[in-house]
Amino acid sequence: MRLIKAVIDFVMDILETIVFVGSLFIVVYLFILTPNQVKGASMEPTFHTGDYILTSRITYKFRRPQRGDIVVFKSPKNPDIEYIKRVIGLPGDKILIENGEVFVNGIKIEENYISARTNLWEGGYVKDGIPVIIPNDYIFVMGDNRPRSSDSREFGPIPISSVIGQVFFRYFPPQVAGIISNPLPSSLH
Prior knowledge:
The chain has helices at 2-31, 59-62, 152-155; strands at 33-37, 52-56, 70-74, 82-89, 94-98, 101-104, 107-108, 132-133, 138-142, 158-159, 163-172, 178-179. By secondary structure, it is α+β, with helices and mostly antiparallel strands. It has a single domain (32-182), classed as Umud Fragment, subunit A. The radius of gyration is 21 Å and the shape is elongated.
């Protein structure tokens, strides 16, 4: 009898541990950080298809997005799809794209992280040489692979409320694993 009680107690301890760890995982996953897999070429050369990243869901509870942050957000066209892009403009900023160069508030930004000059599309939201003012509670985002990115140049600024979180760590592939830093000078944050 004592053996059966010991086995039952042991099984119950294991089940309690599994439930606790499972609950902790769910809380972390839903409210603190989320793993994501990069799909598509829109963020090359910074990220490639198949890279695995961690997205902080709590960063923007403590601070606003900054220029240069990489964010995951719900697509403005289909909220079931998540995009990953870099923040270029903040509320109140004036964005101008002219001759393939990007200007924020009249200052040309040096973007050593992009793979090609910034192009525009016929019928897109942004027109060459015409400034765009970012409304309150919105941000302007672009992919690092400008010719291959559907972003604010096409669909306009996105609501900050659609941002899921800030990408802060790449954990796969191991040879490029590490913290994702903001490449823009602090004066632009």
